[in-house]
Write a structure and sequence with these properties.
Structural class: mainly alpha
Strand content: 5-15%
Largest sheet: 3 strands, antiparallel
Distance between the termini: 16 Å
Helix content: 55-70%
Shape: globular
Order of helices and strands: HEEEHHEEEEEHHEEHHEEEEHHEEEHHEH
Mean pLDDT: 96
Radius of gyration: 21 Å
Number of helices: 12
Length: 420
């Protein structure tokens, strides 16, 4: 249809512009971290940079931050093939293996002091699962078998110590020697419950990454099991939302929706079921994934394109808009567009990207503001630019997902155009 050519060209141009802007922003993010967080005295990366760009080389080094730095530069090299990304991935991987891996107990230290000595040595399963994930991703770009072996060692530790043989799912945390703990919380903001969506989500990511590179039967079995835990225990499939905290027997211990977690779960779960490759599970999961996106759009997607933080269904109680939640709704919307070809998902993804560009990216000092207010869009100056939980991970991941997904969308459009 020759009359549709200008429309097609305009649509394709929007996709390409979206992709190019995200590629540029990803490079901006990674350059900021290279410029501002390298620890030249003690190795690795410093633990904190404040809102006003004050650096804290004396800050503790958290495994969450360091593992997410490794994931970021590893994945950026895989997608964009820039040698400087590869070097920083190697720097990060070396530091983690040398300092964070607890070789005595086959675990991972949660926090180190600035010199690299263990400070909090507990085995938080969130940390083990994510380190396993990022080591598997590093293996994708290097094919270093010893790195994959280490990822599998951590996988075995999680399966041996944390898998609940009675009720299924995974226990939140243990002592350094795998003894039981009374306080298992990831952070003081969390409830002290033995099972959480946050840890299960990182196990899901870890096992997906492992099975993507190593098609071993025990990894497949574990991946299928964690997927079924999400479908049967964690996701309320009637509402399209997740539960945050659970007792051992899966009794719900929270009555709150974190909308960003819901949309993040939607696309990560979809990736997991496709890596697993079980057609029956894929068919079952698709409508659930879409319902989760619809739930967050209906309940917390503001007219400016920003996703609000938390509440219960449409009763939003925290209207602030965190940087990480904006990235997850963009990816989830693109994923929903790829599944349905419904333009509303693309339009909303572009609307959120405009919101990010206007209000979340710090165009003065670089990186992104951690959180902005609902209507005035003012950043919170008490939030850090870099810290244990403020990493280059969510925002760079969104940029990479956009780059890869837009390429796939454009390729599909061309194939359909030529009826191949």
């Amino acid at each position: 249809d020759l009359h549709s050519f200008p429309t097609r060209r305009s649509s394709d141009l929007r996709f390409k512009t979206f992709r190019e802007e995200c590629i540029k922003e990803c490079d901006n993010i990674l350059k900021w971290w290279e410029k501002n967080t390298l620890d030249e005295e003690n190795g690795g990366f410093i633990g904190q940079v404040d809102f006003d760009m004050t650096k804290h080389p004396e800050a503790d080094k958290a495994i969450v931050l360091n593992a997410r730095i490794l994931w970021t530069f590893t994945s950026a090299y895989r997608v964009f093939k820039k040698p400087e990304y590869f070097e920083l991935a190697c720097r990060s991987c070396e530091y983690i293996i040398k300092n964070f891996i607890n070789k005595k107990y086959n675990g991972v230290f949660w926090t180190l002091d600035k010199t690299g000595k263990p400070k909090i040595s507990r085995n938080q399963i969130f940390g083990l699962a994510f380190v396993s994930c990022v080591l598997a991703e590093f293996y994708r770009i290097t094919k270093k078998k010893d790195v994959l072996d280490l990822a599998m060692l951590l996988f075995d530790s999680v399966e041996k110590h944390a898998l609940d043989s009675k009720y299924n799912g995974y226990i939140e945390a243990f002592g350094e020697d795998w003894s039981n703990l009374e306080d298992m919380r990831l952070s003081p903001a969390d409830k002290n419950e033995p099972k959480t969506i946050n840890t299960h989500l990182h196990i899901l990511m870890g096992y997906t990454s492992l099975y993507r590179v190593l098609k071993e039967e025990k990894v497949k079995k574990a991946l299928k099991n964690i997927i079924e835990v999400f479908l049967n225990k964690i996701i309320d499939t009637e509402r399209g939302a997740t539960t945050l905290f659970f007792a051992l027997d899966w009794t719900h211990k929270s009555d709150n929706d974190i909308y960003g977690i819901d949309v993040e779960t939607s696309w990560i779960l979809w990736d997991a079921v496709n890596v697993l490759g079980d057609e029956e599970i894929i068919k079952k999961t698709k409508p659930i994934v879409l319902k989760m996106v619809e739930h967050s759009l209906k309940c917390a997607f503001d007219k400016d394109g920003g996703l609000m933080s938390s509440g219960k269904d449409e009763k939003v109680t925290d209207t602030d808009k965190g940087w990480w939640a904006q990235t997850e709704i963009v990816i989830a919307l693109l994923n929903a567009y790829q599944l349905t070809h419904e333009e509303k998902y693309l339009e909303n993804a572009l609307l959120t990207w405009d919101f990010i560009k206007k209000y979340v990216i710090d165009h003065k000092d670089g990186e992104w503001h951690a959180r902005v207010s609902k209507d005035e869009h003012k950043p919170y100056t008490n939030e850090v630019k870099a810290g244990a939980w403020k990493c280059p991970y969510h925002n760079s991941r969104m940029c990479m997902e956009v780059a890869e997904r837009v390429n796939s969308i454009l390729a599909e459009k061309i194939l359909n155009r030529y009826k191949i």
